[in-house]
Design a protein that fits this description.
alpha+beta; Immunoglobulin-like; 4 domains; 9 helices; 30 strands
């Protein structure tokens, strides 16, 4: 039987027909598909428009901002008329931004609407139409408003109001500290002190928000600032009053001196009230080794492959992630409890720590990757991972848990690792023809010749490629080697030394060895800050690590090392290093000025 080839006239006609069909598809069908796609109604590709507010809940007669955000241009302009049913629209604006991140283009369009609620209660921000597109509704709580302060009753033009989300927190739990500056005068410039509390970690949350409100029939402009406070010791402690120093513009008729910035001002100093916190210790029924208080905690795991088809000697990566709300990254414990044994070889990677300072509080996450290489075939059970924690919302003890994980490991042989191999077939021998015409024999000879020429060219190309590769390697070896800058070598040695010091400190804290911990801290201080004693070193650290270093120093001075434990020092050290990494990534962002 004659095969289909270039010498077959029927094969040539078939190829010509296929090329003609492809030509018709490219010329006519593709443009028609493009036009059809443009004519598809825009509802099929609706733009996702999210809705958010600057704070929730809000008080009645207190202005707040509604944000409508889209990643693409919607079908039309927004119609904010539905908002006027429950809200009074005060102001509106639009902004857009775009960026390139790792070769990916992203775009964001935001509409900002400032409103006042017309009534108190549970309200809903309705969906807003953007042509055929629409935003998503959002629920918001509008409070009637609390009792008026003495400053409002005394008709003060400028005063501070402070409030804590709870005055009876648990140790190391989050307290949202809210500072509000009320004013009905013009301020040229002002400075506000930071909250002060001993034995606490204090973090500023988000950006300041400005809005208008009405108290006792008087309109005020409010600047609100939030902090997250984590008290580190139980007992009674006080948040010292905050101080505002403001230059108030004198109310007078402007004259020519205003052109040169010489308007008269007067200085006013305002103090807030003091807030007392009764910090409660960890509950007696908490049995975990690591005390952790949060509003939400989630523990998850992911695998890089199928754990039911693992192979001996081949690695598989296990990713453990712990996410917490209302907790710092330094309070999240280690996750990898798997120890190296005869069944597995474990190679953990450096943990990835992340911390976000949002308006509602701090969110932290810890991610650990572990490469597991099985050395024994069969089914193996990895132990469950349990993280006990205290839920500050429900005031109950909970456990974030990953149950026991069963994995199946196949043997090293291919027959054991491949579940179902396709049955082998005997080679099919074509039937030997009885006789061939001369034309067919000529065609077969031509085909064999073409295959032989093809193989010759293949081996020739491979030969020249190997020769070119050998030439490149030769010249690379002959090229003079560049000297590595000494500064890079010094930096590498410095980083290696810091890692070794951190390892020694971790070992000392795990053994509760106060003297070894001191030696490791002194080495760390010498490398990082060129200091030679713990007192000077504590001045370069954040509040929590500073207190733990001073406590260690006092313990060593009192020569009573038996009662010292290194758990808190190691936690504070890890949190300090994590915060330094976060600050280094954000050091290009300028902090806003304290002008109000």
């Amino acid at each position: 039987m004659i095969g289909a080839d270039s010498n077959n006239p029927f094969s040539n006609q078939k190829n010509s027909l296929m090329k003609y069909i492809k030509f018709l598809l490219n010329v006519f069908l593709l443009p028609l598909l493009l036009v059809f796609g443009l004519l598809i109604p825009s509802q099929v590709f609706a733009v996702d428009i999210s809705t958010s507010v600057d704070r929730n809940p809000v008080n009645l007669y207190e202005s707040f901002k509604i944000f409508f955000t889209a990643s693409e241009t919607p079908d039309g302009d927004p119609d904010f008329a539905p908002l006027e049913r429950d809200f009074a629209v005060l102001n509106q604006g639009q902004s857009s931004s775009s960026s390139w991140v790792n070769g990916t283009y992203s775009k964001s369009i935001r509409w900002t609407v400032e409103v006042n609620a017309k009534k108190a209660g549970a309200l809903t921000i309705p969906a807003v139409q953007f042509g055929h597109d629409a935003s998503k509704p959002l629920a918001i709580e509008v409070a009637q408003g609390g009792a008026q302060t003495n400053d409002v009753a005394n008709n003060q033009d400028l005063f501070l109001e402070v409030k804590a989300s709870t005055e009876q927190p648990y140790v190391q739990s989050q307290v949202i500290y809210i500072v509000k500056l009320y004013r009905r005068v013009d301020i040229a410039q002002a400075s506000l002190s930071e909250p002060e509390l001993t034995d606490a970690v204090i973090e500023k949350l988000g950006e300041d928000s400005n809005y208008n409100t009405v108290l006792n029939g008087v309109s005020y402009v409010v600047t609100e600032r939030k902090y997250a406070i984590f008290p580190q010791k139980s007992g009674t402690t006080k948040i010292k009053p905050m101080t505002l120093n403001a230059e108030i513009l004198v109310d007078r008729q402007p004259d020519f001196r205003d052109l040169f910035g010489s308007r008269m001002t007067k200085t006013k100093r305002v103090l807030s009230k003091e807030i007392t916190l009764n910090v409660k210790p960890a509950p007696a029924n908490f049995t975990g080794k690591h005390w952790l208080a949060a509003e939400k905690l989630e523990l998850t795991q992911d695998w890089s492959g199928d754990i039911q088809q693992m192979k001996m000697g081949e690695p598989l990566t296990r990713t453990l992630t712990l996410r917490g709300e209302a907790t710092t990254v330094g309070q999240l414990p280690e996750l990898n409890a798997l120890k190296t044994d005869t069944k597995f070889k474990a190679y953990p990677d450096q943990p990835v720590l992340n911390e976000q300072k949002l308006a509602e509080g701090i969110r932290a996450s810890r991610q650990e990757k572990i490469a597991l290489i099985p050395s024994v075939a069969g089914k193996h059970v990895l132990p469950a991972i349990e993280i006990p924690w205290f839920n500050t919302k429900t005031q109950a003890l909970e456990v974030a848990r990953i149950p026991e994980t069963t994995i199946s490991v196949a043997g090293g042989n291919v027959s054991e690792s491949q579940p179902d191999a396709a049955p082998t077939q005997a080679p099919i021998t074509p039937p030997k023809p009885v006789s061939k015409p001369d034309a067919e024999q000529t065609l077969q000879t031509s085909t064999n010749l073409n295959e032989w020429l093809h193989n010759i060219w293949l081996w020739t190309a491979l030969f020249f490629a190997l020769g070119w590769l050998a030439t490149v390697i030769y010249f690379l070896q002959k090229r003079p080697k560049h000297q590595i800058p000494e500064s890079n070598d010094v930096n590498d040695r410095h980083e290696a030394s810091l890692k070794e010091i951190t390892k020694n400190l971790k070992q000392a804290c795990g053994d509760d060895d106060a003297q070894a911990a001191k030696n490791a801290l002194l080495e760390w201080g010498k490398q990082k800050f060129n200091v030679s004693n713990l007192g000077l070193l504590s001045g370069y650290c954040d509040a929590r690590l500073r207190d733990e270093i001073l406590h260690l120093n006092q313990t060593l001075y009192g020569k009573d090392n038996s009662l010292w434990t290194g758990k808190k020092l190691l936690q504070a050290f890890s949190e300090n290093n994590a915060r330094e990494k976060i600050i280094r990534t954000d050091d290009s962002v300028l902090e806003p000025l304290n002008r109000l």
